[in-house]
Amino acid sequence: MVKITIDSSVQAMLMDLSVPLTFVDEKGQVLGFFSPAAEASRRLYEEAEIPELTKEELERLRALPRGRPLAAILADLENRA
Q: Residue 22 forms beta bridges with which residues?
């Protein structure tokens, strides 16, 4: 990812936004989009689909076997090399 450093005046304008912004050139062609970090996080949270699970389903999921020990994972990775 490329990073562009902006000066404090542009930063102040961008941070006052409460909605996403579209960057366009002089001809009106879209260059890109900017979404304030807080706004982007809020939208992702609002759009997330959270399944409704019963107590029984939660208990069943908790009882499932967990992952492998780190030592076993590292051994497998060393064997691949």
A: 33
Q: Do residues 80 and 74 touch, judged by C-beta distance below 8 A?
A: no
Q: 75 pLDDT exceeds 90? A: yes
DSSP 8-state symbol, 26: T
Q: Quickly state the pLDDT bin for 60 (edges 50, 70, 90).
A: very high
Which among 26, 27, 38, 31 is positioned nearest to 4, based on CA atoms? Answer: 31
**What burial letters (b/e) apply to 18-32, b meaning 16+ CB within 10 Å?**
eeeeeeeeeeeeeee
User: Beta partners for 65?
Assistant: none
Task: Look at residue 42 and tell me whether its pLDDT is greater than 80.
Answer: no
Q: How far is it, in rounded angstroms, from Cα 76 to Cα 10?
A: 50
Q: What angle do CA 34, 40, 41 make, to 5 degrees?
A: 155
